[in-house]
Amino acid sequence: xxxxxxxxxxxxxxxxxxxxxxxxxxxxxxxxHPILSRINPTAQATGTLLQPQAEHHIEPQAIASALGPFxxxxxxxxxxxxxxxxxxxxxxxxxxLAPLANFEQNYAVDLARHFAGExxxxxxxxxKISAFDDDYLTINRLLPVWRVEFARDDNLRVYVDTQQGxxxxxxxxxxxxxxHWFRTLHSWHFWPHEPSRVWLMSAALLLIxxxxxxxxxxxxxxxxQGVFNHQHRWARSRRWHAHLSGVLALALTCFCTxxxxxxxxxxxxxxxxxxxxNDAPPFGITLPGGWLEAQWIASGQQQHWxxxxxxxxxxxxxxxxxxQTLESPQKSGHQHHNPKARPVMPVIQYVGAERMASAPDxxxxxxxxxxxxxxxxxxxxxxxVKSTEYMAHFNRHYGFINKRLPVVAVRTQDDRGAQGPTYFxxxxxxTLAAVSNTTSALEGASFGYLHKWHHLDFLGRNLRDLxxxxxxxxxxxxACLGLWRWRQKPRAQAANPTRAKASVVCE
Length: 507
Description:
By secondary structure, this protein is α+β, with helices and mostly antiparallel strands. It has helices spanning about 1-40, 60-65, 105-115, 175-185, 195-225, 235-265, 365-380, 440-450, 460-495, 495-500; strands at about 55-60, 75, 80-85, 90-95, 125-130, 145-150, 155-160, 165-170, 285, 290-300, 300-310, 345-350, 385-390, 405-415, 420-425, 430-435. The strands form 4 sheets. A 6-stranded antiparallel β-sheet has the order 4-3-2-10-11-12, with helices on one face.
């Protein structure tokens, strides 16, 4: 024990010099993160541009005859005009069946103006984005999207998804610059080569973890020997360094180990964001008064229209087990909606060939789960379905980072009954939103609870972030005091050689 303690005394400061730069990079960027998330641009409007419509009949055969074959069909209204969206990118007038040239671009601009609150601003550029880049990051998940840039002093860029008429994210010059700075210090994106970046970051995290554990060991030994009762023997900077390091060693270890786990275990599924094609043509349907949009979904024997209606004019919202807001899922994390806005609370129906859209659908979540079961076979293969669950909100199993709502969690098992991956599928688009297994679930829990402190969410976001920032500030202060002690050591030895050689011996 004594030999190990003396070894820690000899090497603690030396390792600290190597680790100080890494601690400074991660601490400063971590301190800035809560601030950056509060100064980022936010949506100035919630919901969509959809308005309740009168009863309308859809005849797919006539649509196919006039516009050609299609595998996806969405019916919605825009600026008091009923529209057809075929295969995501083709648009036509629902009344005349006339194709609308270049409508998708104009629709993207209208969506961008709506979410940015810029009805009159000049559009400087509009571009279709089919791959992630430094401005539109992978954490946004949605592709393809349109980037609409407004001629403003901050060059606001609004990314919108025209397939579902939703907001993806907003980026201005400030967010782009601060985000680049954060990724440089926190994720080391300046490093040009993989996997050497991962290995170097892992070595730095292990070094800091070892440093923190050594400091905690020394602190406990000194505490047991009553060294802190003789404070006159230590300079004030040394006492503060020891106390801060000892108290915050556990938090430092949690940050480093969860960050290391996140670094190695967060590998997205290669099929993430992949959408299935409908495998059957739609049947005709008469949409009831008060409908907002309708979308055709077909997977195997599961063939339905998904009809969204306004509760004021459509079905009684109390007949449904769940209600889903027609707003973009950017309502937590980095994007926060205007608290004064009141999102529409529509009623969702899944209408099969055997029933009418005007009939109450109290079990629409069961239909959504059946659809997801059929769709999941494309990714799960021969794995059996253990259970399914409809999710209308983000939770600890399916976080905000996944963006898409609502989804169905399809839990699988192999032929021996062992737990398999969980597939989170958005049934009305046939999109694989996320895949979770035991490792990724543990990684998500460790990163959420040990790195981002979501176990303190009950305190509210502001108080949680304040406690987190104070902890990180304490760790950074301890590192700076250690560096200060190292710089002062030669001066102390020159001023008092006898005292400088004296040290506290821990038994």
